[in-house]
Amino acid sequence: MMQLNGGMYMVKISEFQMKDVVSVSDGKKLGNIGDIDINLSNGKIEAIIISGGGKMLGFFGRDEEFVIPWRNIVKIGADVILVRYQTSVETKYEE
């Protein structure tokens, strides 16, 4: 069980893993949930671990992972999980 906005909801991990995780700061898709960090002493989710896409079937190294603290989850929708996460990607502009 997880607690959202004071209410209790049952959600399967498989349902969580199918949702896209999107940063509310720039609208960028970060990936999908690959793992969940649970505090075993109190049973609460501490963070979600996002496995980013991009590597070709894992041949060229490991996918990038993002750890998002549970407190940074803004909204869990039907298809998307919105999170507060600041990416540190530099953008080059050509003239």
UniProtKB/TrEMBL annotation:
NCBIfam families: spore_YlmC_YmxH. The lineage of its organism: Bacteria, Bacillati, Bacillota, Bacilli, Bacillales. Residues 10-85 form the PRC-barrel domain. SUPFAM superfamilies: PRC-barrel domain (SSF50346). It holds the Pfam family PRC. InterPro entries: PRC-brl_dom, PRC_barrel-like_sf, Spore_YlmC/YmxH. It comes from Sutcliffiella tianshenii. This is YlmC/YmxH family sporulation protein. PANTHER family: SPORULATION PROTEIN YLMC-RELATED.
